[in-house]
Amino acid sequence: MLQVEMKKKVLMLIPNFGLGGAQRVFHDHSVELARHYQVTEAVFNLDGGNMYPSSNELVSLEVTGDGSPATKLRNFWRRITRLKALKQRLHSDVSISHLEGADYVNLLSKGREKIILCIHGSKLHDANIKGPVGWLRKSVLMPALYNRADRIVTVSRDIIPELVTGFGVKPHKLLTINNFFEVAQIEAKSHEPLSAAELAVYAAAPILVTSGRLTLQKNQAPLLDIFAALLQKKAAKLVFVGDGELREVLTAHARQLGLRVYAAWEEPTLLTPDFDVYFLGLQQNPFKYLRPATAFVFPSAWEGFPMALGEAMICGLPVLSTDCPTGPREMLAPATVAPPTPLRQAELGAYGLLLPMLTQAATLAADQAVWASTLAALLADKAEQQRLGTLARERMQDFTRERISSQWIKLVEEVCSE
């Protein structure tokens, strides 16, 4: 009688299933790993819903994160005990966690299973890690706990030296597996037609587009200043695809600059070419707003391996990004390393343009001027737009699901054999 090989049991943990790049990556990994393993997804709670459902088994630990410090500490312990019990019930072979809060719970509930952490962004440069709790995370929890993992996957190569020098993680535990993109699917969706009103906007002037959450990390406010300066030289329009907690701050700033603003969430306003800046909000298909644009602008203060940037490249757009930690340089100029001092001028990479970060008050005016002049030059050069867009699309063939998922399969097999 033939012996049937049992599939390895993989448990995947994330704090929540809300909107976000990490949640999207978690979903993609979960679906792909389920082709080879028995995958169970776990989440702290479902208070924010499930924005990226899959067909895998889903278990909620049903522990919230709200309350006083004492309550949060009790809930932290409840998460650990409930996850430990879940691992025992499932007889998990591997437990993979995404995002820092899940990493701690995963490590502190460790049993017989192997532990893999997936680090989605820079820890040293994350401005949200601040105050006493930020100090605890950076100075105590990460240095004390991360070396307990069997492997730590970083989505960008430049996160590895941060973990080694900043948190004492042992180099042999670290490896980089970039995020993957459903390239063919994104390309197909990008060809969905715009409405007549949207087409009129796109036909009126060159379109600069950016996509992503309206948050501190994405640093869109300086982009509005840059765009206002650009309008003194060239006709253009700026399109935001996405929403977030800074929507009111950003629309107010745009109006203070004298820009005419369309915001999808405000009182019904007819969409016409008469505006300068368009906040389109969340879109089920953001890609159709990328492909017909003239260029993609990405002003982030820090990243991991940015999905929005990669999606714009798949859509064949020339891209201009801050040289922020981490990800853009690896995507746009992979043969280079980060300079010892921040960029002060535009750098033409193999697959796109790297520009100064927009976070330093002392150099902000000069850095914005570099952005404005670079954008003006690109808008005046259709041949360069075409060249960079073609190269960007070619680069993204390195990050297809097939290429990247095989690295995860290899990793799971390796840790299980140790």
Written overview of the protein:
This protein is of the alpha/beta class and 418 residues long. It has 2 domains: 9-180 and 400-417, 3-Layer(aba) Sandwich (Rossmann fold); 183-399, Glycogen Phosphorylase B (Rossmann fold), CATH 3.40.50.2000. It has 15 helices and 15 strands. The chain has an 8-stranded mixed beta sheet with strand order 10-11-9-8-12-13-15-14, with helices on both faces. Strands 3-2-1-4-5-6-7 form a 7-stranded parallel beta sheet, sandwiched between helices. Helix 8 (221-230) crosses helix 13. The protein is globular, with a radius of gyration of 22 Å.
Q: How many discrete structural domains?
A: 2
Report the C-alpha radius of gyration, rounded. 22 Å
Low-confidence stretches: none
* Class of secondary structure makeup: alpha/beta
Give me the count of strands. 15
Relevant CATH superfamily of the largest domain: Glycogen Phosphorylase B
- Helix share, percent: 40-55%
CATH classification class of the largest domain: Alpha Beta
Number of helices: 15
The description of the largest β-sheet is: 8 strands, mixed
Descriptive tags:
418 residues, alpha/beta, Rossmann fold, 2 domains, 15 helices, 15 strands, Glyco_trans_4-like_N
In a few lines, what is going on in this structure?
This protein is 40% helix and 15% strand. It has helices at 21-33, 69-90, 100-108, 131-145, 159-167, 183-190, 196-204, 221-230, 247-256, 287-290, 307-314, 328-332, 364-379, 382-395, 401-417; strands spanning 9-14, 38-43, 57-60, 94-98, 114-119, 151-154, 174-176, 207-211, 237-241, 261-263, 277-279, 295-298, 319-322, 347-348, 353-355.
